[in-house]
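Dear Dr. L.,

I hope this message finds you well. Following up on our conversation about the binding site, I have prepared a predicted three-dimensional model of the protein together with N-hydroxy-L-asparagine. For your records, I am including the exact sequence and ligand specification that went into the calculation, followed by the structure tokens. Please feel free to forward this to your student if that is useful.
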Amino acid sequence: MQFSKKTLIISTIFSYIGCQNSSSKEAVKHEIIKPVVISTWNHGLVANEATWELLVNGGNALDAVEAGVKTAEANPEVQTVGLGGFPDREGKVTLDACIMDHNNNCGSVAFLQHIKHPISVARMVMEKTPHVMLVGEGALQFALEQGFKKENLLTEKSKKAYEAWLENSQYKPTINIENHDTISLLALDENGNLSGACTTSGAAWKMHGRVGDSPIIGAGLFLDNEVGAAAATGMGEAMMKTAGSAMVVELMRQGKSPEEACKEVVKRIYKIYQNTPDLEWLQVGFIALNKNGEYGSYCLRPGFNYAVQTKSLKNQLIDGKYLLP
Ligand code: SD4
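The resulting structure of the complex is given below.
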């Protein structure tokens, strides 16, 4: 009796140690892929190049995400971000952007006019003020104080599109408009730190003063350096109603893969809109990247794509998986 009790204790200790060993073997099995960059739409390809350049040269994720999205902000051909963005109903180009680092520091600007690089203003809000978000006139004043140049962001091309829209003045967003849209970009650097950035001119022909999800931490972008990062594109109101990007991160924390987490939030959004007239033109897409460098995406309808680059994967566009045929 004595002996078997002792045996039981010893075997329990050994099975406990065995358990510990097998779980640490499991942990070793997850090889971390880094660096990684993932971004929305085909303008993500150019953005990834700029991000990658910094990441592979030992740059940190924060600098890299800012540099990446600035390429879309500066490109007048990208009519949904920065310079050349489509204006609102009053013909004004108003920009939204946010940025977040691995320490949960974040900065954001919304309803900002005349500044080509709202992402850099957002970063300065993060680094140089006690606040997270500045909007409108206050954001512009801050940008000018920081040395940003005031410029006209309405290009001839976008002005013509606006004038054409004015003929009917009908507010009806177009799904996957011209296959380029808000740029959301996530990166994991060589040190295993995550950062994210999101920048947009918002929904074309929006009401003057309308702000979407893109500058809202938790809606358009969120990350937790212990878990992963997520960001969105599409009809911002849907991401705001669901705290979309924060939710994707929380679902990854619960063990879902990046794609599964994105899919779950897309399904929640569909549930909210399924019996409403807005479903007709609703598109949303999420991208996600976890701490191990695994990435994924999910969207409501076909047409959304994202760009990814890792050491073993050449910078390339991937079609997002979707819920509705
Ligand atoms: C917004 N999410 O302002 C942005 C715009 C966008 O597809 O991504 N549209 O709602």
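In brief: Residues 181-182, 200, 202-203, 212-214, 233-236 surround N-hydroxy-L-asparagine (CB under 6 Å).

With kind regards,
A. P.
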